[in-house]
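FORM 7B: Structural annotation worksheet

SECTION A. Query
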Amino acid sequence: MRIWAKEFRDNRMLRDMVVVNEDSQMTRTKKVFAALDEVCMAFDLSVPIWLDANIADFKRHAKTRFRADSFVDSIDFDFLEFHVIEED
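SECTION B. Predicted structure
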C-alpha cells in the first residue's frame, strides 16, 4: 500500500510524503493508521481526529482532507490531504 500525504496552504503544496507499507500481516485499516502516524511524526504534527466527514470521504474516495477542526493543536496550514495511491 502506498499513501500520499500533502500539506497545503493557500492552494499551494507546502510539503508532501509517500508512505509505503508492504506488511502483508496488517489489515488495510492498520496500514492507514500506521501511515498517518508516520506522516504526523515526519511533519511534527499531532495525529488528527477522524471526524465522520473524513471517514465518509475516505471510504468513498480513498482520500480525505484533515482541516483545523481535526487537529487538537493549532496548525499553520489549511489542510492535510491523505490519499491512497496504490492498494496491495
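SECTION C. Observations
The longest helix spans residues 28-43. The chain has a mean pLDDT of 95.

SECTION D. Sign-off
Analyst initials: ____
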